[in-house]
Design brief:
Number of domains: 2
Number of helices: 7
Radius of gyration: 18 Å
Mean pLDDT: 97
Helix content: 25-40%
Oligomer: single chain
């Protein structure tokens, strides 16, 4: 089946110091190519979700990657029959994913991560490869978890992502003795959450590289351990494991 709209999601933590000019360039290019969605930028990097005609999306990406700061930028792709966004927004923010923790700086270094194949194996085993029992921790908002989640994953019923550091302090004893893998939709929230866990001394903690969407993609839609749909912030509302609405 051929779908008319290509949807992409991506982020990169990289130092940016030309936000006003960059914002205008990205907006103008996306508008000219008929794209809609949201691009957020801050001194810490770029976060984007865009959709439009496939040729237009690929052309915009190609132009973005000519900037060495975004060279090789990986994106998560999904498809839809209609445009899932109402308008185009390119905004300058204080953070590209808000946590209100200035000391948490992914541009300074990344916490440990596991890929989809590793997590799928650990879920099947119930342990990591060293035999430590596994726990999964959802860093998304409570209403997102309601749409779908990994079986048995901890849900701290976050109302907003900036609640995560306090929730970790309140629930840290639940994680003792386990290898903990945290996850979110596309990985960006875990980039910061994993650093908070690292700072709290949780040595056996990892982020799921690329989030739920990458897990669906890399496991060819089999997604061991997953139940339900993955909530997305556009008019599709949720995606199944085949990355379709």
């Amino acid at each position: 089946m051929i779908h008319s709209h290509l949807n992409i999601a991506s982020y990169r933590f990289v130092a940016l110091d030309d936000l006003v000019g960059l914002r205008q360039r990205l907006f103008d290019a996306a508008e000219a190519l008929g794209l809609k969605g949201t691009v957020l930028m801050a001194e810490e990097g770029l976060n984007l979700c865009l959709a439009g005609p496939p040729a237009g999306v690929e052309a915009w990406l190609e132009a973005l990657r000519t900037d060495l700061r975004f060279a090789g930028l990986e994106v998560k792709r999904s498809w839809s029959d209609t445009q899932p966004f109402k308008r185009l927004k390119v905004k300058i923010k204080r953070e590209i994913i808000r946590m209100n923790q200035p000391a948490v700086r992914p541009t300074a270094g990344r916490a440990a991560a596991v890929d989809a194949a590793t997590l799928a194996r650990w879920i099947t085993q119930g342990t990591d490869d060293a035999g430590r029992p596994l726990k999964l921790l959802d860093t998304r908002n409570d209403f997102e978890v309601d749409a779908g989640a990994f079986d048995g994953a901890l849900n701290w019923q976050l109302q907003k992502f900036s609640d995560f550091p306090a929730a970790l302090l309140a629930h840290q004893t639940e994680l003792a003795g386990h290898t903990v893998v945290i996850y979110c939709t596309g990985g960006i929230r875990c980039e910061k959450a994993a650093l908070v866990m690292q700072a709290q001394g949780l040595a056996h903690s990892f982020q799921l590289d690329g989030g739920i969407l990458k897990y669906f993609e890399d496991t060819a839609g089999l997604a061991p351990g997953w139940q339900g749909r993955c909530f997305v912030f556009d008019e599709r509302a949720g995606l199944d494991t085949a990355l379709t609405a």
